[in-house]
Amino acid sequence: MPETNSPHQPGKAIAFKLSAMAVFSVMAAMVKAATTEIPAGEVVFFRAFFSIPVILGWLILRGELTRGLVTRNIRGHFLRSLIGAVSMGLSFGGLSLLPLPEVTAIGYATPIFTLILSALILGERFRMIRLSAVGIGLVGVVVMLWPRLGGAGSLEEGATLGAILVLTSTFTGAMAQIQIRQLVQTEHTAAVVFYFMSFTSILALFTIPFGWVMPSGEMLALLIGAGLVGGVGQALMTTSYRYAQASMLAPFDYTSMIFAIILGYLWFSELPALVTLAGAALVVLGNVVVILRERQLGIERRRARSVGDPKG
């Protein structure tokens, strides 16, 4: 289901992408604050459910409401949502246990895992440059996780669990990206976003028996706000890809670390450890190698990137 292309306007595209990264970082901070009292499954419900009105409003403003809700592959949407909901829940669980910048840094490994899964599942060629990029990225992941897994001589139970949750979330997020790549061959990107949020809202309800709680007024504001802000972030990110190619905008994903450090310090009095920044730098380097290689080969993944992985 092809989509109309807008003129190439890199300045506008970068502005939308940077705004999206800032908004998603605010959403992650709100989620982290909420998970001090609210179970991750309950947070997932609010994050997904209250994004739906924003997405519908966005489609109406673009005149794409009918087109954006049409689907030829409801089963594919459900599978993508199931994987994405699990990834989101794991990420939110990790946010409750780890500093915001650290969760952001580990999340940068998603494209590395996506590359590996693309070779294993989609049969994409995996030559020396990409193999080197994967190697660099995986070394960065090990560097970031080493202290959390006892490599520094001490083991903090909560932090170790958080690291495992976020790493697993990153891997499942990569699985969701593979599913998105297949969906956008026939589905409008807006439909992928809408059905993900809709199915995730329903799937999250199955976590009620695991201990949902009645949120206080402050927590309720954070939960609803996270959903609304997340919907705005998704709209901003998708809009950015209407004005520039994914390969040009991909490096701006990493500005989220700047926003995460600022919010982590101001909101939670957190600062990233040097080992986290060092590991993140290696992961980013691996991703940049892939981006440059894809640009050289002319590989176009614009529509899949415009949907993005579940943000949390």
The number of helices is: 15
Structural class, from helix and strand content?
mainly alpha
Detail the poorly predicted runs: none
Q: Between the first and last Cα atoms, what is the distance in angstroms?
A: 28 Å
Shape: globular
Order of helices and strands: HHHHHHHHHHHHHHH
DSSP strand count: 0
| Mean of pLDDT | 87
Quote the beta fraction.
under 5%
Helix content: over 70%
* Rg over CA atoms: 18 Å
Please, how many domains?
1
- Characterize the largest beta sheet: strand count, sense, and whether it forms a barrel: none
Tell me the layout of helices and strands.
Layout lengths: L9 H25 L5 H10 L2 H11 L2 H5 L4 H22 L4 H8 L2 H12 L6 H18 L11 H27 L5 H16 L12 H24 L5 H4 L6 H13 L5 H24 L4 H6 L5
Q: Which terms summarize this structure?
A:
312 residues; 15 helices; mainly alpha
